[in-house]
Amino acid sequence: MKLDVTELTVFTVLLLAVTVLGFLAARWRRTRAMDDLKEWGLGGHQFGSWITWFLIGGDLYTAYTFVAIPALIYHVGGAGFFSLPDLAIVYPMVYLLLVRLWSVSKAKGYVTTADFVRGRFGSRALALCVAVTGILSTLPYIALQLMCIEAVLRTMGVDGQWPVAVAFVGLAGFTYQSGLRAPALIAIVKDVLVYTVVIAAVVFIPLKLGGWGHIFDTAGHKLSASGTGRTALAPQGQLNYASLALGSAMGLFLFPHTSTAALASRDRKVIKRNMAALPAYSLAVGFIALLGLMALAAGVVPLGTGDGGTDSNTVVPLLFHQMFPDWFAGVAFAAVGIGALVPASVMSIGAANLFTRNIYREFLRPRATPAEEARVSKLASLAVKLGALICTLMLTPQFSTDFQLIGNVIILQTLPAVGLGVVVRWFHRTGLLAGWVLGMAAGLWMLYRIPNPATHHAHFGGSALPLSELGFHTHMTMYVGVLALVVNLVVTVLVTLACRALRVPDGADETRTDDYFHAPAGSAKTPAPLPRPAGPVVAVRAESSPS
Amino acid sequence: MVTATSDSSSAEPSPARRDRSPWNWLLAPAAIAPLLTFIFNRDEPRLAGIPFFYWFQLLLVAFAAVCTSAVYLATRRSGASDEA
Fold it and tell me: pLDDT: is B65 or A464 the higher one?
């Protein structure tokens, strides 16, 4: 591509502006010194409804959503639209659970989901598993965000790795300096840009292309001609579609970045309101996804990567480049770029919190002060981003949605301990551990069995397992994440029953029923004392009753 | 369906679950309908040229939002402990 100076100028100015904003965010609404993990890593627990809306919105609806989902639809048609049912069901599904997680975290001073698991099930090993899972699943997710910036730059005619490295340094800098406040503030700018671009795209591009009907007809013909898909679902693809939506929705709030954003809110009402208001973003995603079909109808062909492959992520940027005047294309590219920085920042904070609380403080320095925790978390956030940068260099941009879906297979294995843990205490810690191990093994084994026909790799080529692999006489496929979760749950239940029968000692539960419904008065100013990992855990109830 | 927090054992006097409400059942159709692909896996009828498959799923997002908002508004009074 030829270098487009206007686009690049607008893009650079907007990205520089939000980077400065990110650094200034350190002073925004600050009540205490920044050398406290709750201040750096959770924004002081004081985000109200609006800020939380922007922050979770910035977190869930990322550059990956704007770029990779339409790219998938460009290739496979309606089957790639699974994000929409995913983002429709997630809020009613987690509505009651997330509020409980918030309350118990507030009451007990938990910063991460692994903190909760340790307190609830009295198992350091299980908490470690949850923490490691969270960190591992986050790395490819951050990498995907950086790849989206790369695709935008490529479209503007800027090749090579160094511009991404520059964006990365800015990101690392403001995250280190301002913590969760930076992405919260930048998310507001991101949303203004994204909504402007989406509305413009949905109104003007169909006009230019001859109407919605024409877009779907043309795209449908091209999909059936290439044999890769259709505008709706193939009969044997329905189960995969539904299981993908269900699996993605169940995994969404288990990721460290989403739980971090939710835990940063001020009270229970903020979360409930947000569960009701966040679907507004989902509607925007639905229209953004249709950009893939618009690109197909407009005859967009993705750019090459230079080493023979193609970068599907360039489909949407190229569509903007063709359809919009240069200056507005620059704004649209900035929206994608900023849409990558916000979640990448929160993800690195979430992963860093997990490292600090559940690895460093738990196993290395049990007597770490809050100031030391904040210091370690800041450094860990840099390490996480560096890890993601290395991932970017190793992963190929083709079908990058698969990396996200594979990360989701992994994070889903924490659902019994975290998601069900806020509702039931019946599971035995050994059962949960065994379920996690075997669910993870089953998931990775199934992913290993899936070839990638596009790149001719025999393994890890996607997330849809043909059910014939499991001995069923059918052409249907199903999302590996849901299958692995079933393995996990069955093992968890069986081992729990066995442990109860054999009277294997269970961990102590330090939480009480009240904690899940209660908002401790005035605790925004004085956080509850942190549970200490050293020494015997004081049991609130002597033995957990298998009820 | 899993039941209430199981640690509300009789040994420990504790108030009843404070988020129990018949309104919560509204969350179920919102969370299930978008998974029933056989309902909307068709092209016709189109709306402004958009196939049923797409506009109906967009409608289901709005449906989920309405259900969740209704649960929030209807149960707002009962949860007295929502504010910090």
Answer: B65
